[in-house]
Structure formats: C-alpha cells, structure tokens
Structures
1.
Amino acid sequence: MKTILLYALSFFFFPIGINAQDTVFKTDGTKIEGSVTVQNKERNDIVSIENLKIDANQVDRILFENGSELISKELTYYNSKSKIEITKYAFLKQLLDGDAELYSYDGNDFSFALYVHNKYQVLQQIPSDANTEIVQTYRITLLVNLEECAPRPEIFKTNYSRNSLVNLVNNYNQCKNGDYEAIEESVEKFRVFYFGASVGLNHATNELLLPLIDRVDGEPSVIGRVDQEGVVSTSLAIGLFGQTNILNSKSFYLKLGINARKYDFSITSFDSNIEVENLETTELDFNLGVNFKPFSSKKISPEIGFGALYSTFIHNKNIYHNTSQYYPAIPNTYVGNSSLEYFLEASINYKVTSRLFLFAEGKYIFRTGNGMIDRNGGFYFEEDLYNNYTLSLGFSLEDIISGTF
C-alpha cells in the first residue's frame, strides 16, 4: 500500500515542476525570482514574492514560469463601492496586439482594458447614474477610440465578454492595416489542473443486529447475539484527487478521486462470557464530482462540491472464521458490501504560493446501501451505517496549460 501511494504521488506531482520560478521585473531594472502571488487592490495592485510585498507602481512586468505575463499600467476606473473614480497601477494580461491592444484584468470593478492612440483606458460597465469625469461605459470608450474602423452598430452590439471584445478589436486592427498579431489565438483556451492529497478522520455510526455463530459437532449453531445501536467509529481517512476546469471555466471544476476510509466498531454480546472482536473494515471508493470555486485567485477561497462515489469494503478483518480466542463479529457467510453513494463536500483553500495550496475539507456521505456487510447466508442479520463524514487536511498543486486544445 505504501509503495502504491508513493508511486501515485510521484506520477501526479513530479511532472508539474514544483521548483520552477516566477520573475518580477521592477521599474528600477532589478528582478526578483520566486513564487509570486498577485493581489488586486482598490488602490494599487500588490505582488508578493519571497516574503516581500511590492506595489504595482514599482513593477514593470511579471513573468510566470508557465510563460504567461502580466504588465503593470496606470489606469483610471470607477469604484462601484466608493462611487468615485480612482487612478491606480493594475496588473494586466495581454489578449491582442496591434494598432489597438486588448487586455484582461482579474479584478472586481472591471475585467478589460484597451490600449489605443498611446493611451491605456479601462473597459468597464458603469451605472447610468454614476458621476464620472474620465471613465465612461465601455461602449462609449470603444466608440470614441475605434469608430474610425469599427462601425457604430457593431460597437453597440458588442457584449462585455472576452469573445465579443476580441472579435471587435480584431476587426478594427484588420481594418487599419491588416497586419496584427492575434495573441488571443495562443491563449484562447486554458486548462487548469490540480493534483492533491489529504489525510484526516472518518466518522460514522453503526447499528448491528445478528447472531453469533460457532460450529458445534460440525454444524453451525447460534451461541449468542448482538443487538446494538449508535456505536461510533472515528478512524483514519486518506485520499488522492485530480481536478480540471470545465469548458474553459474559472469557477467550475471536474474532480476525480480515490479514497480509503477505516471503520472500527466495538461489539458487545448479550452474553457476557463471550468476547467478540471489533467490526473492523476498510472502505475504498472511486469518486467523481463537480466543484465550484468562486474566488480561486484569492489568497483564501471557499470551495463546494457534490458528486457520486462507488465504494467497496475490503480487508474485512473479522468477517471470516475466527482463529483467535475471540468470536468474530460477523459469521463467515457474509462478505463486504459494494454500492453507489452520493456526497457533498466543502473546503477552505489557502494559497501558499502561486501553485501550492493548503486546504481543510469536510465531506458528508449519503449512504444508499444497507451498510458495510452484504448478506450471503441463511441467518437473520441487520446492519446499518449512517452519519458518515470525513474531516481532512491536505495540499494541492496547480498547473495551468494555455492553448487552442
């Protein structure tokens, strides 16, 4: 088991390149290498690297180890919370190059910026009653700057979305001289991968009603019985998982995992002279779910998910014929159960570096089967497993691939 776990970890994690470095190029000509975290602030954005916090007005650009790049530029935008215009330095990612350049921004009040006629301007949706002197709603900004080569009806049909703005700016650049570099083609889609592991506690409650069987003169015979409710087990839980975003989404992810959970329930016989082994087994499951990460770029972010799992109980230590001084809890005519279950999970993620995350997770399993043991014999038997949840701590590593896949 230990060998398999080490192999799985090496398969998942080593290709990612944990030791790769990001680079911050400052305006004074110096550069700093390390793991970068970017914070989009109301005033100037901040980049954190090697225990340093650097204001965006001191940064020229950031080059990430995966090849993507952010540049720092001064912009004026309308702050919807304060209801004022604010001028700040923001980290922008270039989408299109040409006579007009289009940029994306991962902030709250605006998502795009335009560079044309030697000037950077935000493309922003602002309320009709906003009191502004510089910032205008994005369609007016596009009209003022691009109308010479983009028809007015086309501008007013443009939505505040990546694809719609890319198409408009592309057409503008083609109209100007037909010579432009469509950077968007190389980053049109992106795939985000997370690979992680967790360890924690598995909690469950069990009810059990069954006879204790022994062989008397070669024939099975009832020598006692068990009838108990509300017996709790709290044992080890471990897991491995992989995640990838769905349809180029920044918030919805498909998650595939494998988990092992230990159960150890004490058993009490009605006959005090009979000592019974604990009901001890391990559940192995393969699960598939959909997770929602609304603020995945933030330092601390929540995550929720739901899905289904197929589980089977293995290593049923005491289901088979007794070889010790105690009687087994379950006769040897019973085997481990397999079933399809459902789950809900929630976690809090903490961004340690641009690629490493720590998380605390809780998962509740909705049991659809009767329990851990599948009846396969002639003796009366009842068993139920419920109130089953896990609490875990773990880590994950992020890898981002951009392309036209």
Note: Confidence is low (pLDDT under 50) at residues 1-19, 180-188, 319-327.
2.
Amino acid sequence: KAAHKDVKAAEKLDKALKKAKGNEKKELKVIEKFAKKMNKSPNGQKVKTLVAIARSLGYSASVGALQANFGTPQETGIIDLQNQITDLNNQIALDSQTLVDLNNQFADLSTQIENPDLTEEEVADLQAQIDTVQTEISNLEADIANATTDLANTETELQETVESVNIGNRDSSWTSINLDTNNDGILDVNDIL
C-alpha cells in the first residue's frame, strides 16, 4: 500500500514538473512538496534519493519510486543477468572468429598434405596437425553450442525476472534502468548528475 502511494506521488511529481517546466520557482516548490510527502513514507528517504537520481538522468520520477519500492536492477539480479548475456554474446563472437581461423588453418593444412613431394615424415606431421585442429574445431563447436543454449536460457530468465518485478500493466523498462551512475554498487546522492 505504501509502495503504491510512493509510485502515485512520483507520477504526480512528473505531471506537476511538466506543468511547471521553465519556471524554476514552481519546479522547486513541486519538488519540496514531494519531499515532504516522502518524509511521511516508510521508504521515503530511499524514494527521494532514487527519484532525484532518475530525474537527474532524464527519467521520470516514477522510475526512481518504482525501483525504491520494488527493487533496483542490482537488487533484483537484472543487472547480473544482463551482464551474463553480454559475456555470453562476447564469448560466442570470439569463439566464432576462432572457429573461422581454425577452419582456415584446416583448409591450409589439407591443401599442404596433398603435395606429392612430401616425405612420409612430413605427411605424418601434417596429419597430426590436421587431427589436432579437427579436435579443436569439434571442441569449439561444442563450446559455441553450449554458450548459445546458456544464452537462450539466460535471456528467458531475464524476461521472467523482469515480468516478476514489474507491477501492473505498465511498461517494464524501469526494471532495467541502471541508476548507479558511478558504478560503486550503492545508490546514493553521489549518483545524482
């Protein structure tokens, strides 16, 4: 119930600030009124701080109020899941490029081994290299397949987490907005720009 009031107060703040836009005196009065209301809320200081951060970043006040009451992306694990997705995408891209390189190496070795002027020892050496590259290719293909599966699972987990954190029939983008501007893991006045 308190959370609902905080979100409604933040939405009211957004509307009032839009009306007061350009009039610094009115904007200040609107913000002071919001601050007084938040002083009565059990979660008031956190709401005020996150609303101030959100507003300083150009987001609506409701982003801060919603995160104060229902969890920041750090608290809900959304940031961790987004980072895992980034890491998996990077791994897949790197492994895919390595696979291209290995396939080129395999093709080059396969061409070399066809040379009729090679000695048996040279052919045996090239065949050993081909076998090694084939093993590396197989291992890398398995790694890419596993990372692709992990990526799909993590994306599903992220979507499920966003849906569980988001309340009501509202746009869920607020759930993943990172208000930690200085990346210190703490949301406080130092994040206000």
Note: The chain has a mean pLDDT of 89.
3.
Amino acid sequence: MTEDQFRRIINEEVTRAVGEEVTKALERELPKVLEKQLPAALEKQLPLVLEKQLPLVLGREMPKILHKELAVFYGQVTHYVDKNIKDFRTEVKRDHDRIYTLLDGIAGRLTSDEQERAALGHEQKRHKGWIKQLAHATETKLRPDIS
C-alpha cells in the first residue's frame, strides 16, 4: 500500500465518522504526523513483514506466475511453429504441384511418342507391302534385308 493510498483511506473513514471540521484539521496535521512517524514505523515493520510474508506470497503466487508465463511462452512457440509448418506445407504443396505438372508433361510426351511410333510402324508395314506389290508387278527381285 502506498502512502497516497493510505492517506486516502484514512481521509475517507474520518470524513464519514467525524465530519468536515475534523477532516480539515486532519488534512493540516496528517501530513506532518505521517511525515514523522510513518517512515520510522515502516522502517521497523518492513523487514519483519518481508521476512514472514514474502516466502508465503512467493510460495502461493510463484506457481501461478510461472504457469501464466509458461502459458504465454507456449502460446508464442505454438504460433511460431504453426506458422512455419503452414509456410512449409505451402512450399511443399507448390513443389508437389510442379513435380506432378512435369510428370504429366513427360507422360503426355511418352504417350504421343508411343502413338507416333505405332503409326510409323504401321505406315512402314504398308510401305513394305506396297513395295512388294510393285516389285511383283514389275517383276523386280528385291534384295533381302541385311540387318
């Protein structure tokens, strides 16, 4: 409790009980009394209060304080990790999509190459057939394939 708080409490109580005349007298005299007596009283009592009450207060309040601080820290760490995981997932998804696009392109080219080879093979068979028909019609002897 601060000195100002102490003064205000005393003033409120005295005002209620005694009235304005006593209050005015107290307002004049209280600062003088407090100035002389309060520091001496506090100086004597403070070490005793601290010695007795501090371990009790710390014993009760420290776990609450630590729990609150750890909760805040955990929240910050969780937020940081979640953000980084989200960023990482976005990056992996982007890379994943790029890879699938490349694979689709390669698969498309392979499919078209296979179709083209099949068409060329079929065309070559037709050409062979026509050449044989021409050779037969012109009575030309064809050389056998060397390969």
Note: The mean pLDDT is 79.
4.
Amino acid sequence: MSIILEPVARTRPVSLPPYLVQPIISSRIRALVLPEAVAGPVEAKDALWVREGFTVLERQRRRNLLSIRYAGEGRRYDVPWPAALSKPEAGVRDAGSMPVTASRLTLLITAVRRCALGEVTADEALTAGVSIDVDGYGVVGFPFLNPYDHPAAALEFLFRQQHRRVADVPQVAVVEFQAVTRNIASMAVQRATEEVQA
C-alpha cells in the first residue's frame, strides 16, 4: 500500500505504552485522547512520532546502527545511529528516552477536537482503544478487566493508565490520525526526494 505524503506542518513526539503500539499498527486504534498539555498545539496535517519503551541490546553489530528490542517484542531491530556518537549502555529504557532515529511509527494527524474528558463521544472512545465486549465495554491491552457499563468509564480508565500524574479530569485533545509504520525522518527524506524529482 502506498501512502501519499502530504507536507507536515509540525512534528512532536508522543510517548505510548507498549499495549497501544500493536493496536495502532493494525489500525485498531485510530485516535488518541491526550491531556491538552501533552498534545500541545497540534492540528490536522501535523505529525506525531511515537516514542515507546525499548531495550538497548548488549551485543551491537555495527558502529552506525543501534541494536534494540521494542518493549513487548522479542525481535531485534537495527536502527540508524550516528557513528560519531557513542552508543548508550545496554539496558531497558522508558519511552521518554527514545531518540527520533529509533521511532518506527508516525501518526499523521487528520483531525483534532478539544473538549473535557467526559465530553468524548462513544464513537471517539471506540477509535481510541475502548472495545465492545459481551457484557459491556472493555479496554485494549487489559483483557481481564471487568467490563464497564458505559464507554466513557472505560475510556477514563484507559486515560488514567496512560496519564497517572494527571490529578483532575482535564481538558483533552482527541487526536485522530493515520498511522504509518515509518520513521518520521525517513519520511521527510522520501518527501524531499519526491519534490526534487517532480
């Protein structure tokens, strides 16, 4: 499948837990509900590059590649690394430590709606990780959770798991996106090459 790369106005990182990454890659999740402070001034046509937890592997193969394993996965990935920089020590890193060169997922924003958490619609909740179960509403990544009676309650649980430091119910940004399993820097190079060839 080919994706036409439109110019991106702004880019920002977004840190995500491992239980959301695979559902985003598979298009099960097509929106994020973020505190406004985390989302920042994003709008349609902006892009978010995904930070996720990872492990720097003990054995490194080449100077210009960093060998890592993404959280929740067993596969080894070699990502570009500047040969002039020393590599980080082996070990587990949280999502906030991920450099842009290691990001494997870019979210091209198609729409943003700002509202109170309680004003997120049922449809938006379903695209953001709430699922319909036999007995009510579940949450992606929490298969043994007792179902909720309403999608808003399930969404609030998911929101609280991702943003534990947020004390009160904040204003949020419902960020709808198209996920692309490409590094944002390599996408920029592709776009520049296409512009030169045009």
Note: The first strand starts at residue 11 and ends at 15.
